[in-house]
Design brief:
Elements lengths: L4 H21 L5 E16 L4 E7 L6 E9 L5 E9 L24 E10 L3 E9 L22 H4 L16 H4 L7 E8 L6 E9 L9 E13 L2 E12 L3 E12 L4 E10 L5 E14 L2 E13 L7 E13 L4 E13 L8 E11 L1
Antiparallel strand pairs: 1-2, 1-3, 1-17, 3-4, 4-5, 5-6, 6-7, 7-8, 8-9, 9-10, 10-11, 11-12, 12-13, 13-14, 14-15, 15-16, 16-17
């Protein structure tokens, strides 16, 4: 697989930093952290013709583990090595109605982070390696406390489930084709983040897909973020723009607001593909309360409306309900959701898909 001259130039720099940095920082008080999470759910899916129940990995926030080595340097700077990988389970974003087995098949695409990050308090942060592009998460601002089971990337919940024509066989269009939030991802990239300026920060990245065979697309991302508290109100706003090779551009963003005393919160996400007519709007309302001593309870309802995904002139819509109960002392969240997904296009009416999930995420 061939790669761009840009990344062939950057790769030796990353390798040199990885070798030299521990020697530079060896006299400092370095820290090491190992972490991870398990996140499984009992899924029940009905595509209008067939229904199945199964246990699988929840790809809204899949099962993973990682390690962070960090060392302080002179003048307040820090150097960090970050490794993170999923465990390779066939999860909720890829299972189909005919293949619901919880299979283990680790592939290199499971690698989430293999990066070096150098941060200074005045200049900002420089990242090299496999990790988040500058717009990763920019369609997903959310204070609801239910994003573990309900957020704007609906394909993570049931992406491999096909829509069926009324009483017919699978259409070949699945939930992942019909629903998108255009969010950034993780690539092999170089990235820069500015320091925080009164709540504002800017990020930029340039990278390439190196983990998927036959995919050498280049990605350029620019993001603007604003995060600030106004007394009892928390605000998180994000705007992102992505260039993919020379033939695709997408603009997207999200805004989340939380009133901490009442627990009321709201989020909106929207995006558009510049070359086509693909676009969507996602709106979420939430409520967080401490009804139980074990931890907070979060409730949410959301609505998604999209146009021209998979087929020109189509409409994609969804309504979802979510509840998450935290158990703080155990680092545990127990959750449940119900979601209905609709896809409409002129030529062939298709059945709605209903998804119900009960599950839990444990972090360590």
């Amino acid at each position: 697989m061939s790669h761009s001259p840009f990344l062939r130039t950057i790769a030796p720099v990353v390798g040199g930093l990885a070798i030299a940095a521990p020697q530079v920082a060896s006299a400092q008080d370095a820290t090491f952290k190992f972490y991870g999470q398990l996140n499984f759910g009992l899924f029940s899916v009905d595509d209008g013709t067939q229904s199945e129940s199964f246990i699988t990995d929840n790809d809204n926030s899949n099962t993973r583990f990682g390690a962070i080595w960090e060392s302080p340097l002179a003048n307040g700077a820090k150097l960090k090595f970050h490794f993170e990988t999923a465990v390779g389970l066939n999860g909720s974003g890829s299972v189909s109605i005919d293949d619901t087995d919880l299979e283990f098949d680790w592939r290199r695409t499971e690698l989430r982070k293999v990066e070096v990050v150098y941060t200074t308090p005045t200049i900002g942060a420089f990242s090299f390696g496999q990790g988040s592009t500058a717009t990763d998460g920019f369609a997903e601002a959310d204070f609801s406390g239910t994003s573990v089971i309900a957020y704007s990337a609906l394909g993570d919940l049931a992406g491999g489930i096909d829509f069926r024509p009324l009483g017919g066989v699978a259409s070949g269009i699945d939930v992942g084709d019909a629903f998108s939030n255009f969010d950034g991802a993780r690539r092999f990239r170089v990235r820069y983040d500015t320091p925080d300026f009164n709540g504002f920060s800017v990020s930029a990245s340039a990278g390439e897909e190196v983990l998927r065979e036959g995919d050498d697309r280049e990605f350029y991302d620019l993001g603007l973020k604003y995060a600030r508290d106004y007394g009892d109100i928390k605000v998180d706003g994000r705007l992102g723009y992505s260039w993919i090779d020379s033939d695709e551009e997408v603009a997207f963003g999200s805004l989340a607001v939380l009133h901490e005393p009442s627990g009321l919160n709201a989020a909106v996400s929207t995006g558009r593909q510049q070359e086509g007519d693909d676009d969507y709007v996602y709106v979420k309302l939430g409520y967080i309360q401490n009804w139980f001593t074990v931890g907070s309870t979060a409730l949410s309802v959301d609505v998604y409306e999209g146009n021209d995904f998979a087929i020109t002139g189509s409409e994609s819509s969804s309504v979802g309900l979510g509840v998450v109960q935290r158990f703080d002392d155990q680092n545990l969240e127990v959750y449940a959701t119900y979601r209905t997904l609709e896809f409409t296009e002129a030529s062939t009416p298709v059945e709605d898909i209903d998804v119900m999930v009960i599950g839990a995420r444990w972090k360590f």
